[in-house]
From TrEMBL:
Protein name: MFS transporter
PROSITE patterns reported for this sequence: MFS
Keywords assigned: Membrane, Transmembrane, Transmembrane helix
Superkingdom of the organism of origin: Archaea
InterPro entries for the chain: MFS, MFS_dom, MFS_trans_sf, Proton-linked_MCT
Organism: Halocatena pleomorpha
SUPFAM superfamilies xref list: MFS general substrate transporter (SSF103473)
One of the record's GO molecular function terms: transmembrane transporter activity
């Protein structure tokens, strides 16, 4: 095809029905995969009982899973930029199916690690592809499409805790895992049939090679952006792994405690879309930073919340903060650093986030054991969150001649 034909094909693909189909499947994939991984706190005790794991071993399973989800999945995302997306996504579906099968037959701690590491790798690859592909299919409705897709990250913690509890009340962990991850694998296989980059979308893209990686990693602004996002999101990984245990230790019933993640996820469904609209009005970076500050405040006050009402208010605040933090970072990053090779760029951000996902929950657990309470760990978490928001803001500052309105243009569709 000639350059003119490629340009015409791309214009016809943007904001098309194909794009909205990709959004719909993306919502379903993120709901099941993100929900399965980041509602670990709901089934952690059953996992420990089923395989005879200590509390520390169970906690390490979550840390390892999230590290593979973000780091290895991110690496796969970088390499996926060099290949058609369909076979990469189909391979991720195979990985999910194999992880499900492994958990049915293993009986040791090492075996569980292998199964969950594979879950993290396959799930992280699918996650990276989804959040990097959707913006490429839209122009006028890019922000709306991105925000809607990211609601899957909210629907996961909203729906999956109740699904886990329902399944675990009626069957064992292995069967429950097979059902949830099996559904995710089917969705990924179906998506592999229709997921591909829009025609002509990469005609001007730079090849993802060592030179590209060196230039990206050598950019101080990009490094601050990646580290800042990782720190600003650390609180979420702590709550994903420890929230139910923290609340039940304070005398909250397990089912009510499990609903804590649902509250955060449910509220964030609305604030993801609302955050895009507000970002168009006042600036995406300002909205992101404000959400980071709110999450930091919630982390500061959480250990002092002893009544059900106070706890729900704090969880409500976490949910408000989660929406813009989860939905705005991708368009901000791709606008500041370019949408060419978007899958690789998002993959690098996820690799950086893996460090936070792995270390922050373990550090919080270690601090809790050393000081004998939750106050100091959560105060530290609050400081890291606001520091991360500040680093992200500095890293994504517009280049000379750009403006906040340029950054806001990615979500202009939500305001139309």
């Amino acid at each position: 095809m000639t350059a003119t034909e490629l340009s015409t094909a791309r214009e016809e693909a943007l904001d098309s029905a194909q794009g909205w189909l990709i959004v719909g499947l993306g919502i379903c994939i993120l709901t099941t995969i993100w929900g399965a991984v980041f509602t670990f706190t709901v089934y952690a005790d059953r996992l420990a009982a089923t395989f005879g794991l200590s509390a520390l071993q169970a906690s390490s399973i979550f840390s390892i899973t999230t590290a593979f989800f973000l780091m290895v999945g991110g690496l796969f995302g970088v390499f996926a930029a060099r290949f058609p997306l369909r076979p990469v996504l189909a391979t991720a579906g195979v990985g999910l199916a194999v992880a499900t099968a492994l958990l049915q037959i293993v009986n040791s701690y090492v075996g569980v690690i292998v199964a969950f590491a594979l879950l993290g790798t396959a799930g992280g690859t699918a996650f990276t592809i989804v959040i990097s592909l959707v913006p490429q299919w839209f122009d006028a409705y890019q922000g709306l499409a991105t925000s809607l897709t990211m609601t899957g990250i909210g629907f996961g913690p909203l729906v999956l805790p109740f699904a886990w509890l329902w399944l675990l009340d009626r069957t064992g962990l292995r069967t429950a895992f097979a059902v949830v991850i099996g559904v995710a694998a089917v969705l990924v296989f179906v998506s592999s049939i229709v997921y591909h980059r829009p025609s002509g979308g990469s005609q001007n893209a730079t090849t993802v090679d060592t030179a590209w990686l060196h230039a990206r990693i050598g950019d101080a602004r990009f490094l601050c952006t990646a580290i800042g996002f990782a720190l600003a999101f650390g609180w979420y990984y702590v709550l994903s792994s420890h929230l139910t245990g923290i609340l039940t230790a304070n005398g909250i019933d397990v089912e009510i405690a499990a609903a804590g993640l649902s509250i955060i996820g449910g509220i964030s469904v609305f604030t993801r879309v609302g955050g895009g609209v507000i970002g168009d009005r006042v600036g995406q970076r300002k909205t992101f930073v404000a959400s980071g500050v709110l999450a930091s405040v919630c982390a500061f006050v959480f250990p002092f919340a002893h009544s059900n009402l106070f706890i729900y208010i704090v969880l409500f605040g976490f949910g408000i903060a989660l929406g813009p933090l989860a939905s705005l970072w991708s368009p901000i990053v791709l606008t500041r650093f370019g949408s060419e090779n978007a899958t690789a760029t998002v993959g690098l951000i996820n690799i950086a986030t893996a460090g936070s996902a792995f270390l922050v929950p373990l550090t919080a657990s270690a601090l809790h054991r050393v000081v004998g309470g939750s106050v100091f760990p959560f105060i530290t978490l609050g400081v890291l969150t606001v520091l991360g928001a500040a680093l992200f803001r500095w890293g994504t500052a517009p280049q000379s001649g750009d403006s906040e309105q340029t950054l806001g243009s990615l979500t202009s569709g939500t305001a139309k």
